Task: inverse folding
């Protein structure tokens, strides 16, 4: 061994020497790590202590594991095991379908500045995730139709200029340094840009990329009809229209039908070169019609929708008892005066609802204790507990919905909805709901009414529905035919009837194909701040989903047009975790406190009424001064009123202190439970080992 020692030392020295030279000589770079392994392996053979040989052996094992992992990755590709609750790291079937059915080449220019001092830790963690994801979709693409270019746009280079020309955003990481982390995706003459891969949007990474690929590779987008009393193309956080509307336009050919859908059909058919207009809404040309807040809808417009459903069309109707967007459009310019003009705040489909036995209040807002937001009960955060139809594809991967000032649906007169039709209640209330008049919310007592509205919540009643699907062969809601034709045929007094032209197509009394009518009890849920929010970066920005509202409705549209592709991918949004135990405890305390406060309020009102009665009697008797008896009575009543008001305040303080104590208890239990469990397990292990040692 002594003779071999100089040789081994020489080999180790040569390995370390070549390892060091490989950083300066490009020709030695491929052999860099092999030289290091050789040096460590030789050193391990030198006579030394057990500790030294053990350390060297562990180092060699770590290096071998690293190289084995690299070898497997290069031969088998990126493989992983997804243990997340919502499978956020597993590609959906829709994504796989898009990639496997590509027919046109797609180029992805992926720009990321990798060597920037001060890069935020969130971006450092997100960059490898995006790297891996883009490689994965490239490998899954049909016939290698996706070209993926990794570009590092260092400052003052042609690559940086190319990124800026592609409208990828620069991100300020320090006062002097900027980084670029985005992509441009193009196919033939079409291009779209992801300005930045925001780590906060990790759940939307798959949809961001795959929807961009679908957008540039699709030549003929499906047509979606739109009816709304709102102008979705203006306003919003980005000042370019509702963010949902912008998202809809990216994937579909949006056809704005106005509030009288058949009036512009001739122009629509001529513009799209569909031939002559048939005079009715044709499901073969327009497979789905989205109706958002149809305030003031006319019988003629409802008749057009009715005949469309009878011919096998799909209508998605978002109605509202109190639209926040409509209220904003009619806000008064004079404080204290009622709103003038603007869009009516409530909307419905009166003829269709009456025909299909749908009960929907135009003025009452539902308050649902189980799903109410913590600080604003008018906002409903609907999680999977509210989504009762688990296997419906429109709810695929949807974990949450957010509704504002929502209404609800139920069967009228105690009978079920949609007689003769298939009815699916996709999203339902809990049993802890009540109704409150929408107008009273704006009154001075609105906050108090809202706070204790749930003290009288219903228990054990039939659930209401937030989202309902009626499907099947529909009967017409207009048994007498087209209402506009009837008005033309009814002459006024003294007029002579004129011959009217026969309609192009006779009105249907019964459906000729299977139709679908989706009912959604809120229209504001698609507005900015509930569905999407706009994140500004530099001179532009990007939209970010903040709930499952937009993905859910787009899933419904995809299903209606026969597309399965983007369902699921777009639906991965942050979860709403409902604190059900805390909410139940709060409900119990609130109910007791509410009843106590009502008793004290009744006493205070009774005392105030008695004092007002005494003053009225003095006025009637023209008494200028109070008698000692009346002064004594008024003093007693005033004291009773003050005591009652004081008791109300004390009860409210007591209620709030109990809630605070409840929250604090949950907080400390959550904080200390795990460490306490670890300590107990550690003590048990210590006791067991000590007993084993004593036994020896």
Result:
């Amino acid at each position: 061994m002594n003779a071999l020692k100089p040789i081994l030392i020489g080999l180790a020295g040569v390995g370390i020497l070549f390892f060091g030279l490989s950083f300066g000589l490009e020709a030695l770079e491929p052999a860099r790590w092999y030289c290091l392994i050789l040096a460590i392996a030789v050193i391990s053979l030198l006579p030394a202590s057990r500790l030294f040989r053990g350390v060297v052996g562990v180092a060699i094992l770590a290096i071998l594991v690293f190289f084995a992992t690299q070898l497997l990755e290069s031969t088998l590709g990126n493989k992983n095991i997804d243990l997340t609750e919502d499978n956020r790291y597993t590609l959906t079937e829709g994504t796989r379908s898009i990639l496997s059915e590509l027919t046109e080449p797609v180029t992805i220019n992926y720009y990321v500045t990798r060597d920037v001092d001060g890069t935020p830790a969130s971006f450092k963690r997100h960059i490898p995730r995006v790297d891996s994801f883009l490689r994965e979709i490239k490998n899954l693409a049909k016939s290698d139709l996706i070209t993926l270019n990794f570009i590092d746009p260092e400052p003052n280079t042609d690559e940086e200029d190319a990124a800026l020309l592609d409208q990828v955003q620069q991100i300020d990481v320090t006062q002097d340094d900027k980084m670029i982390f985005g992509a441009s995706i193009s196919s033939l003459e079409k291009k779209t840009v992801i300005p930045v891969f925001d780590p906060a949007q990790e759940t939307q990474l798959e949809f961001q990329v795959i929807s961009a690929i679908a957008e540039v590779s699709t030549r003929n987008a499906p047509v979606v009809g739109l009816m709304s009393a709102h102008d979705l193309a203006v306003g919003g956080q980005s000042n370019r229209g509702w963010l949902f509307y912008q998202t809809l336009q990216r994937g579909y050919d949006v056809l704005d039908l106005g509030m009288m859908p058949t009036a512009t059909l001739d122009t629509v058919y001529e513009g799209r070169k569909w031939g002559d207009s048939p005079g009715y809404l044709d499901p073969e040309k327009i497979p789905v019609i989205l109706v958002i807040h149809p305030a003031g809808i006319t019988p003629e417009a409802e008749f057009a929708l009715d005949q469309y459903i009878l011919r096998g069309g799909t209508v998605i109707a978002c109605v509202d008892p109190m639209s926040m967007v409509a209220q904003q459009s009619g806000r008064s310019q004079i404080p204290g005066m009622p709103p003038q003009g603007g869009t009516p705040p409530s909307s419905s489909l009166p003829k269709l609802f009456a025909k299909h036995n749908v009960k929907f209040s135009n003025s009452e807002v539902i308050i649902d204790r189980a799903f109410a937001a913590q600080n604003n009960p008018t906002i409903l955060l609907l999680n999977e507990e509210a989504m009762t139809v688990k296997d419906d594809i429109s709810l695929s991967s949807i974990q949450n919905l957010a509704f504002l000032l929502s209404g609800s649906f139920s069967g009228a007169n105690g009978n079920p909805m949609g007689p003769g039709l298939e009815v699916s209640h996709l999203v339902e209330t809990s049993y802890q709901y009540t109704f409150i008049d929408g107008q009273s919310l704006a009154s001075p007592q609105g906050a108090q009414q809202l706070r204790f509205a749930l003290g009288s919540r219903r228990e054990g009643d039939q659930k209401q529905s937030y989202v309902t699907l009626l499907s099947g062969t529909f009967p017409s809601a207009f048994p007498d035919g087209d209402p506009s034709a009837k008005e033309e045929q009814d002459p006024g007094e003294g007029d002579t009837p004129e011959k009217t032209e026969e309609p192009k197509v006779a009105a249907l009394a019964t459906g000729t194909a299977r139709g679908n009518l989706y009912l959604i009890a809120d229209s504001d849920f698609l507005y900015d701040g509930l569905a999407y929010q706009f994140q500004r970066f530099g001179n532009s920005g990007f939209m970010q989903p903040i709930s499952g509202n937009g993905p859910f409705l787009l899933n419904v549209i995809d299903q209606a047009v026969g597309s399965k592709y983007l369902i699921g991918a777009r639906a991965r949004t942050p979860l709403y975790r409902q604190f059900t135990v805390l909410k139940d405890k709060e409900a119990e305390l609130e109910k007791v406190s509410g009843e106590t406060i009502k008793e004290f309020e009744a006493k205070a009102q009774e005392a105030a009424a008695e004092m007002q009665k005494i003053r009225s009697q003095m006025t009637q008797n023209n008494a200028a001064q109070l008698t000692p008896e009346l002064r004594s009575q008024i003093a007693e009543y005033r004291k009773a009123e003050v005591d009652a008001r004081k008791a109300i305040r004390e009860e409210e303080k007591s209620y709030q202190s109990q809630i605070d104590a409840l929250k604090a208890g949950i907080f400390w239990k959550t904080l200390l439970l795990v460490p306490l469990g670890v300590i107990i397990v550690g003590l048990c292990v210590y006791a067991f080992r000590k007993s084993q040692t004593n036994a020896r």
